Amino acid sequence: MVLNNQETESETVYDAAMVGAESIFLVDDTYVLRERLSMAMQQRGFRVETAGSYDEAVAVFQRSPTDLAVLDLRMPGRSGLELLRKLLQMQPTTRIIMLSGFGSIPASIDAIRAGAVNFLSKPADTDDILGAFVRGEDPSVPEGALAFPAPSLARNEWEHIHRVLSDCGGNISEAARRLGIHRRSLQRKLRKRAPEDPAMPELIDDDGSDD
Question: Does pTM top 0.70 for this prediction?
């Protein structure tokens, strides 16, 4: 579920006891965000481990695995999705939430299929994250055409290109090779802003009038 963070249970102040875990792993390449969340999680009673990249995260987790993990989807080098799979190989019992500034439906589906318990769009604060862990294995991708309109072809292409680029560690030449397009064509596409998703369709009554 790509959650609207304004609709989370912000009135509830979660802590380690409420979540049922003692430790949490925070992986984000943005130092300020990582440290802010780390301090907040420590105040809630967690042992906190942090890392800023895939390689650093694997090394830290091997040394000190945690009950929970919060991973940024987009990082320089190997992606958070790859890290998600690696951490679950190392310790399948770790519950993991994926964070992304993109907040896209395809990205959330990828994360849930890979084993994440939930997916949150940034910005997400401490209670947004812990609340998502408390909710647990709720259905993460809504069913029904009206729940989420299908992304446009342009949006799907844009997200696919950025996923491939992330998998290539930001290497444009390698990404262009995998995508089967010229490097300059890829560079032109990367300069474009993300296309907007289709608007939510309006509900129509049987008599044809707007609801």
Answer: no
